[in-house]
Amino acid sequence: DPIDDRSTLYCSDLGKAFSLPIFHCNGDDPASVVAAFELAAEWRQAWGSDVVIDVICYRRFGHNESLNPDYTQPQLYQRIAKHPRGEQVFQQRLVESGIASQAELDEMKQAIWKTHEEAFAAADTYQGKAMEWVATKWEGFAKPTDAASSNPTGLDIDLLKKIGFRLCEAPDGFALHNGLKRQLKKKKEDLEAGTAIDWATAEALAYGSLLLEGTHVRITGQDVQSGTFAHRHCVIRDQKTSDTYCFLNNLNLGPQEAFVARNSILAEYAVLGFELGYTYENPHALVIWEAQFGDFANTAQVMIDQFVSAGEHKWLQQTGLTMLLPHGYEGQGAEHSSCRIERFLQMSDDDEDDIPTFEKDFGRSQIQKANWQIVNVTTPANLFHAFRRQQHRDFRKPLVIASTKSLFRHKLCKSPLSDLGPDSRFQRLLDERDPEIAGNPDQVDRLVFCSGKVYYDLVEKREELGLKNVAILTVEQMAPFPFDRVKTALETYKNVDIGDGVHPGSVIWCQEEPKNMGPWSYVRPRFVTTAREGLNNDMVMRYVGRRSAASPATGYAKVHAAEQEALVSEALLGHDDKNWQTQRPSKLLGHQT
């Protein structure tokens, strides 16, 4: 009933708050409906404002075959049962006004019904093409069943430097913020040295290189121009005039596409939905939506569940939408720590028990058949390749990046320019990065897998303790799972105890999230499948991370610090448990199996 739906007479009254024109028309009068739509379209074209059309109709039957609306709206449906159909009302009006005769209308109806019946009969034998069902036609793009190809994502070093230098130059007379002056000076020095490219620079180099290749790049979200954590500064403001300048639209290195960075309000559902539609219409653009914090993606969950994760499965509609969801545990509390990566992994459609082939190009064919990609990268170079990889394939998949909050300025989170250069590519798993440990795999008796920012906490603690027997590897792409890379790692560190099929050994998964969250539930069975099918071993992996909880993170800084110290120390050192009696070495941590 309308009384349950709104407090106003018309459902369109909300438009009055925005001074919008509102056209009311009767659904029994198709001519007035058409006139209203034509007038609305002309109004919008002429004045550029929204228009509201209120078509007043009724539902003759319930909203499904089994629903009888007489139970809840008896008087209304008694009147509807006696009311002639809209077709009859309009037909009588046309005859009485002399616009058409009954014979003419009957002839039109028969012609229409004949067309419908012929189409219905032909449907039984119709052999269509799969792509005919796609709302927008993407010529040249591969389907999951087609053989796909990809192009290299690495670039010439000289070109990277040219792009980078242009990203450090503001127009003459432009009054830069003093802090930004220092940042640009440091960025230019790092580019010249080529040994320590930071996160923001790698991101900007990816955008700039794609623009020069003819790829339109757009990013929307809260504070995307400066970046929530003041790292991006792709659009800057003159400190005296407030005029804006976008580095990426002024590369001056030849023809380039346009770059758009648009700040939005906290309306994740609406903004993500718009950007998703943009990817449907333009598969040649890199379209990015960034949440202010990854936690905020929960208000866009309808778009994610219904369209992003399942759109290709339901409608064969590919999308290359990229989502940047800041994620990481730094003591900022329950609403600013987790992008709920477990939810995205749970919706990934790769089966944990599907036996991988471990063959060449396994990674690309695996992604092509998956519904999306979930990554949590730890190096600027891998971020660079993740963005470019999105556009350098002849198919499109959504990309969810559990992006960083604290690694923008971390002293260890740097990449040499060579890691962005020719012959470089996205790494689904990164092996041990300490040359001494990597060069002596037989000396390693403890193998720690992790993803994201916790890697650097582990490395710093390992260096503090002087450990050389612990190798730390990062799973950069969690879904689809890099079975082949994990298999190679387990083969490399052959002296690590993998467990006896019942009790855990010294292969550890370390995460910051509570045990019932984060990647653990997703990665654990896939590690086991890798060992079983690839190495013929029954591995029992050891969990090291926060204990299960209802909230993603504690709100107390001291508790957070104690939890972080406990999980990092346990991952590296373990505890005395020769008889497997201590499954929870700390009340702050979860059970280890």
Descriptive overview:
The chain has helices at 2-5, 30-47, 74-82, 86-96, 102-122, 157-166, 178-193, 199-212, 268-281, 301-308, 311-315, 341-346, 362-369, 380-391, 435-438, 454-465, 483-492, 520-535, 557-573, and strands at residues 22-26, 52-56, 217-221, 235-237, 244-246, 259-263, 286-290, 322-324, 373-375, 399-401, 429-430, 446-450, 470-475, 477-479, 507-514, 542-546. The model has no long low-confidence stretch (mean pLDDT 92). It contains 19 helices and 16 strands. The protein is globular and about 95 Å long. With 593 residues, it is of the alpha/beta class. Strands 6-3-7-8-10-9-14 form a 7-stranded mixed sheet. A 5-stranded mixed sheet has the order 11-13-12-15-16, covered by helices on one side. Strands 1-2 form a two-stranded parallel sheet. Helix 8 (199-212) runs parallel beside helix 14, helix 16 crosses helix 19 and helix 17 (483-492) crosses helix 18. The longest helix has 21 residues, at 102-122.
Sum up the structure in keywords:
seven-stranded mixed beta sheet, 593 residues, five-stranded mixed beta sheet
Total number of beta strands = 16
- Looking at how many chains there are and whether they match, the oligomeric state comes to single chain
Helical segment count? 19
Q: Rg from C-alpha positions?
A: 30 Å
Which residues form runs of ≥5 with pLDDT under 50?
Answer: none
Strand order of the largest sheet: 6-3-7-8-10-9-14
Give the topology, please.
Elements: H1 2-5, E1 22-26, H2 30-47, E2 52-56, H3 74-82, H4 86-96, H5 102-122, H6 157-166, H7 178-193, H8 199-212, E3 217-221, E4 235-237, E5 244-246, E6 259-263, H9 268-281, E7 286-290, H10 301-308, H11 311-315, E8 322-324, H12 341-346, H13 362-369, E9 373-375, H14 380-391, E10 399-401, E11 429-430, H15 435-438, E12 446-450, H16 454-465, E13 470-475, E14 477-479, H17 483-492, E15 507-514, H18 520-535, E16 542-546, H19 557-573
Parallel strand pairs: 1-2, 3-6, 3-7, 7-8, 8-10, 9-10, 12-13, 12-15, 15-16
Antiparallel strand pairs: 4-5, 9-14, 11-13
